[in-house]
């Protein structure tokens, strides 16, 4: 377990739910600020930014390597996409101020050392390593050296990539690490969610695990919660109709609210291993089976399967005694519907 801005993250703590702003400000600071307020209304615990510029994340180049293939951004230049999607650094302080006023934690994903240095001036309480940056070991080391919790998405990671990233954090003396199962498709097919990985990440690597989700709907976050996710991150937008690079796989306020409600209900449903009955459950035992007289029995009469049977309710003798009393003689008269005790038979 660790803390982000005094909020406990981990075992026995509620799922930490992050609304990812990403590019969903659509170039408007006012939209960004209203999205923060909407995230609070929707039940998020935190709002997360991305801190980069087009030049810190890629090159302004026309070679085929820098043209996107096989995604919803097909054919676009990386530099052009990131120029559209980035959150201006001069907005960060205002966004964080509004988040604090709303009672939301605000932190960010840095994409190079200059963005880490900038975020340090804003005293962010944690860092997120995006899926595609999990191979940038120098960046991870630099982030981890700030001795703040590090949340790492594993969307494009092989086992060796995860091991290298964790080793980088631990070399810097930072063990406040969480790994998020992520499917780096936009939107992600639900059949590729593979939520059993949430449990495996925690057990295999001894860290807090969770979900960074790009599927549509709340099903995958609910399943992740049931597999032990302690962090859930979803892209959040005021209204998909405003458009933008991430709009098609982001949740609006109504959808996010419903997801939060479903996750909180799933947490309650999971409960704990406990074979003790609550008072209400104990009352329910009134309707279980017990042994009753089903035909009037005279003193001295032999007990058979015809005059005593297992019936509801459960106020009489436990059915486990049925074989023990069959063949015995009644030592008193017994009437149909009468509760019985072992002492009634010789």
Overall mean confidence score, pLDDT: 95
Terminal CA distance: 62 Å
Number of helices: 12
Name the shape in a single word: elongated
Order of helices and strands: EEEHEHHHEHEHEHEHEHEHHEEH
Q: What's the helical proportion of residues? A: 25-40%
Which spans of ≥5 residues are poorly predicted at pLDDT below 50? none
Main CATH class of the largest domain: Alpha Beta
Radius of gyration: 30 Å
The domain tally reads 2
Describe it for me?
By secondary structure, this protein is of the alpha/beta class. It has two domains: 2-270, Alpha-Beta Barrel (TIM Barrel), CATH 3.20.20; 279-344, Type Iii Antifreeze Protein Isoform Hplc 12 (Alpha-Beta Complex), CATH 3.90.1210. It has twelve helices and twelve strands. It has an eight-stranded parallel β-sheet. Strands 1-2 form a two-stranded antiparallel ribbon. Strand 9 (208-213), helix 9 and strand 10 (231-235) form a beta-alpha-beta unit. Helix 9 packs parallel to helix 10 (253-270). The longest helix has 18 residues, at 253-270. The protein is elongated. The N and C termini lie far apart (62 Å). The mean pLDDT is 95.
């Amino acid at each position: 377990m660790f803390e982000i801005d005094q909020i406990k993250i981990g075992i026995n703590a509620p799922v930490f739910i992050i609304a990812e702003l990403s590019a969903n400000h659509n170039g408007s600071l006012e939209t960004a600020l209203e999205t923060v307020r909407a995230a609070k209304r929707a039940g998020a615990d935190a709002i997360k930014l991305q801190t980069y510029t087009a030049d810190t994340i890629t090159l302004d180049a026309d070679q085929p390597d820098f043209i996107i293939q096989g995604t919803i951004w097909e054919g676009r230049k990386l530099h052009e996409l990131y120029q559209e999607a980035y959150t201006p650094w001069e907005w960060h302080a205002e966004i964080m101020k509004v988040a604090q006023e709303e009672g939301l934690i605000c932190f960010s994903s840095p994409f190079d050392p200059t963005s880490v240095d900038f975020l340090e001036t804003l005293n962010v309480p944690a860092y997120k390593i995006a899926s595609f940056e999990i191979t940038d070991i120098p960046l991870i080391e630099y982030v981890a050296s700030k001795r703040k919790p590090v949340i790492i998405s594993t969307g494009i990671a092989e086992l060796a990539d995860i091991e290298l990233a964790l080793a980088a954090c631990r070399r810097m003396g930072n063990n406040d690490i969480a790994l998020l199962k992520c499917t780096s498709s936009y939107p992600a097919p639900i059949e590729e969610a593979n939520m059993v990985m949430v449990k495996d990440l925690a057990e295999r690597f001894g860290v807090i695990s969770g979900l960074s989700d790009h599927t549509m709907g709340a099903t995958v976050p609910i399943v992740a919660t049931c597999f032990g996710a302690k962090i859930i991150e979803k892209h959040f937008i005021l209204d998909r109709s405003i458009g933008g690079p991430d709009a098609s796989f982001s949740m609006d306020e109504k959808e996010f609210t419903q997801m939060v409600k479903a996750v909180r209900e799933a947490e309650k449903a999971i409960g704990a291993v406990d074979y003790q009955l609550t008072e209400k459950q104990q009352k329910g035992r009134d309707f279980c089976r017990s042994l009753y007289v089903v035909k009037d029995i005279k003193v001295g009469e032999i007990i058979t399967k015809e005059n005593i049977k297992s019936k509801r309710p459960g106020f009489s003798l436990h059915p486990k005694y049925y074989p023990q009393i069959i063949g015995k003689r009644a030592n008193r008269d017994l009437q149909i519907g009468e509760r019985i005790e072992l002492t009634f038979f010789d």
